[in-house]
Specification:
300 residues; two-stranded antiparallel ribbon; 11 helices; 2 strands; globular
Length: 300
């Protein structure tokens, strides 16, 4: 064998040196890009960044931290909502027939008639998502974020700011008797101790909003989105059906006003807890009035 080619050694040296310089340059480039907030692609060059979007309104699918975990498409739709509503009506009729009838019912029976159908409807909705979907956490948006509390409180207070003057105007137009809610009419003239009055307060302010939101801004909302509609059609339909489903036709315009901020909480977070909080805040004032009326602190 002959002597090694000296030119080959020189070429190898230059190639090794060039590669080392390229690696050092790449590392320095990455450090400079990181300091500037840029992303580095697989070739070592910065990746072009899109300009920031507008600073208002939710992204198309809701804020990134508010989007519920994704899963496979659920197998339930409007039929699930119809089933839940039918169950609610059937249980309400049975309780009314068996326990209320023509006799004046006690406050305890009235609370049962108010709470049990709603709880069964919401429980059935949750069960449907567990059996034919991804569970309530995914299908109903029942995931929690600290942002939900702030949005829910803000829109709940906004709802109160809208509904209080709207209620006064509505009562002036149709008369105070027509403006009274169905719950207020049911408990009118009743007198109970503080413990039972507090129980009614908890049902009206905390339990009923959770159940109603699961059915409307959860189950019905998911059924609308399953058929390809976005969040705004879901908002419109759930707001309308929520107002109509109270079966208080004379108060439907007022209930629409109540439902709009609650539905917006679902729109702007992409999840259910914010609308639950907004609904609970909206029910706080009527719940307090009912609490004081049942203890005869104020007339109902």
């Amino acid at each position: 064998m002959g002597d090694p080619d000296p030119g080959l050694d020189r070429r190898r040296y230059r190639g090794s040196l060039t590669g080392s310089v390229g690696e050092v340059g790449s590392a320095e480039g990455e450090q400079r890009a990181a300091a500037a907030g840029e992303m580095i692609g697989p070739t070592g060059s910065p990746v072009p960044q899109l300009p920031p979007g507008p600073g208002w309104g939710p992204p198309p699918d809701g804020p990134p931290d508010a989007r519920p975990p994704t899963g496979s498409p659920h197998r339930w739709g409007f039929g699930a909502y119809v089933l839940v509503e039918a169950l609610f009506l059937a249980v309400s009729v049975v309780i009314g027939y068996l326990f209320i009838g023509d006799a004046a019912p006690s406050v305890g029976i009235l609370v049962v008639g108010l709470a049990v159908p709603t709880l069964l409807a919401a429980g059935t909705a949750v069960l449907i998502t567990a059996l034919r979907g991804n569970g309530p956490r995914v299908d109903l948006g029942l995931t929690w974020s600290r942002r939900d509390l702030g949005v829910g409180l803000a829109l709940g207070l906004g709802s109160l700011a809208l509904t209080i003057p709207a209620s006064l105007v509505y009562a002036f137009v149709v008369g105070p008797d027509q403006a009274t809610s169905a719950v207020g009419q049911v408990f009118s003239g009743q007198h109970v101790g503080l413990l039972m009055a507090l129980f009614v307060f908890v049902v009206v302010v905390f339990v009923a909003p959770v159940c109603e939101e699961i059915v409307y801004r959860g189950l019905l909302w998911g059924a609308v989105e399953k058929h390809g509609a976005g969040r705004w059609p879901a908002f419109a339909l759930t707001t309308l059906l929520f107002a109509l489903a109270h079966f208080e036709l004379t108060r439907t315009p007022l209930l629409l006003v109540v439902a709009i901020p609650i539905g917006l909480a679902r729109v702007y977070t992409g999840r259910l807890p914010a609308s639950i909080v907004a609904h609970q805040v909206n029910n706080l004032l009527p719940g307090l009035v009912l609490l004081f009326a049942l203890t005869r602190a104020v007339p109902l």
